[in-house]
Design goal:
Layout: H1 2-83, H2 87-169, H3 173-186, E1 190-194, E2 197-198, H4 207-215, E3 220-221, E4 228-231, H5 232-236, H6 238-246
Parallel strand pairs: 1-4
Antiparallel strand pairs: 1-2, 3-4
Helix pairs in contact: 1-2
Bound molecules: zinc ion.
Amino acid sequence: MRDQLKRLEDLQAHDARIQELENSLKAIPAKLAATQNDLARVEGLLATERQALTETERYYSEQKGLLTEDEIQVAGAKHKLAQAKNSKEYMAAQREIDQRREGLAAREGEIAKLVEAVESKKKLLGERAKDVDNLKSSVDKDGDAAKARMAEIEGKIAELRAEREKVAAQVKPDVLKRYSSIRMRRGLAVVSVRNGTCQGCNMNIPPQLYNVIQRGQTIETCPSCHRIIYWEDLMKDDKKDDQSSAAPSA
Ligand SMILES: [Zn+2]
């Protein structure tokens, strides 16, 4: 039974490694999705800012159109001034010119501010777009690296599964069945007993059972946690065992 216990330990080590690799495999797409979400978020922000710029540019051309109208109005007022037949008409035209000119100046000021705003926004967006491009290529690169890493892990898992099957084939079917059902419920299915204590649940093994597992002739389970147990020292003296079997006993 000692070799069966050894194989179970080996099987368990394989299962643990496979589980570990499967976990890291699962973690990769989630991590990747997080960086892709970041990218989508900054791309979204950039699009919104571009939209705002378009809006400002539209307002700018509207103001330019109104400026032309203002200029026509000023010209009209000037014409009225030239055509004034009396001082009353002259005064009114002069007042209108002043008002129109004031409006014109205000609009020119507004347009100058818009030009400045559009220019600086364009510059900022140009820089922002560059940053987003850089982030995008880094995310793409991460994606490629992640794919390669996943393929690598999948390869390792396949390799380990094949090895595991070889080990499993050497375990007696009933023992394997017990191992599998304990593993399903407890995760760890095979544990050692050290100084009479089960290393799976830290409970003491009854003395009689402790004697039984020290002989190592049967597959026993812990009465508390129901895991397959073996005496720690039974596995330890592996090399000594080989030597003693190779050398003639004194
Ligand atoms: Zn136990």
